[in-house]
């Protein structure tokens, strides 16, 4: 066990390349790997440094939390980086996640609309703040119900706030299993990792104009 809480436990899983062309990469990030280097000198291992060993021009466009696994898009040039960043800013990239959450979700389909703000004394935690928070919305679809007391859901974020999916699910009483930031101890103990995986990215290719559909199969049940 690492004695320093600021040092990330090494991730032994590889980054999988799902698709590549002259402009971009689609990759599968394992859980436990940072998207970009951490501030502590010991936390330099991350997705972008690994990918740059093979693709020196690769650039981060967006991020996944360290504990979240799944699909990410990386740019391979300054032009594609600008174009992809603009697509994210304009919400023209379709993102989907799968998660296992605590308890029984009754609604087949619902929108969570709760503004979020950084909880500065406890960062990187976020919190709901109706006075100063930024607009944040997540569509939740129930996929299946399990007798062990959890529900499989499909998550479609409209916005892309930090920790948005984790906070939103916790706020409606269904924290994501294995979430040590926002779940109660029972939900944390029901999984050996954060049960959140980015399964889909769909967008218009910044150069060719073709539709790019990237899929990453969920690694947990």
UniProtKB/TrEMBL annotation:
Residue ranges constituting the Pseudouridine synthase RsuA/RluA-like domain according to the UniProt record: 23-170
Recorded catalytic activity of this chain's protein: uridine(746) in 23S rRNA = pseudouridine(746) in 23S rRNA; uridine(32) in tRNA = pseudouridine(32) in tRNA
Pfam families: PseudoU_synth_2
Keyword Isomerase included in the entry's annotation: yes
GO biological process: enzyme-directed rRNA pseudouridine synthesis; tRNA processing
Alphabetical list of CDD domains matching this protein: PseudoU_synth_RluA_like
PROSITE patterns: PSI_RLU
SUPFAM superfamilies tied to this protein: Pseudouridine synthase
Keywords, comma-separated and alphabetical: Isomerase, rRNA processing, tRNA processing
EC annotation from Swiss-Prot or TrEMBL: 5.4.99.28, 5.4.99.29
GO molecular function: 23S rRNA pseudouridine(746) synthase activity; RNA binding; tRNA pseudouridine(32) synthase activity
Family per similarity comment: Belongs to the pseudouridine synthase RluA family.
PANTHER family according to UniProt: DUAL-SPECIFICITY RNA PSEUDOURIDINE SYNTHASE RLUA (PTHR21600:SF91), MITOCHONDRIAL RNA PSEUDOURIDINE SYNTHASE (PTHR21600)
Entry protein name: Dual-specificity RNA pseudouridine synthase RluA
């Amino acid at each position: 066990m690492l004695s320093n809480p600021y040092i990330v436990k090494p991730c032994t899983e590889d980054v999988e390349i799902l698709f590549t062309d002259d402009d971009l990469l689609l990759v599968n990030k394992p859980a436990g790997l940072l998207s970009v280097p951490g501030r502590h000198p010991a936390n330099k291992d991350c997705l972008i440094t690994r990918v740059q060993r093979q693709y020196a021009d690769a650039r981060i466009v967006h991020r996944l939390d360290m504990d979240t696994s799944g699909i990410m898009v990386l740019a391979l040039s300054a032009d594609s980086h600008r174009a992809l960043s603009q697509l994210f800013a304009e919400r023209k990239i379709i993102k989907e996640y799968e998660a296992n959450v605590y308890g029984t979700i009754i609604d087949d389909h619902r929108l969570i609309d709760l503004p979020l703000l950084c909880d500065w004394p406890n960062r990187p935690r976020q919190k709901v703040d109706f006075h100063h928070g930024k607009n944040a919305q997540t569509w939740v679809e129930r996929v299946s119900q399990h007798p062990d007391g959890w529900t499989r859901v499909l998550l479609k974020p409209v916005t892309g706030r930090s920790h948005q999916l984790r906070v939103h699910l916790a706020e409606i009483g269904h924290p994501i299993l294995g979430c040590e930031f926002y779940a109660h101890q029972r939900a944390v103990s029901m999984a050996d990792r954060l049960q959140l995986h980015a399964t889909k990215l769909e967008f218009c290719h910044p150069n060719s104009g073709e539709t790019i559909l990237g899929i990453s199969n969920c690694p947990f049940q």
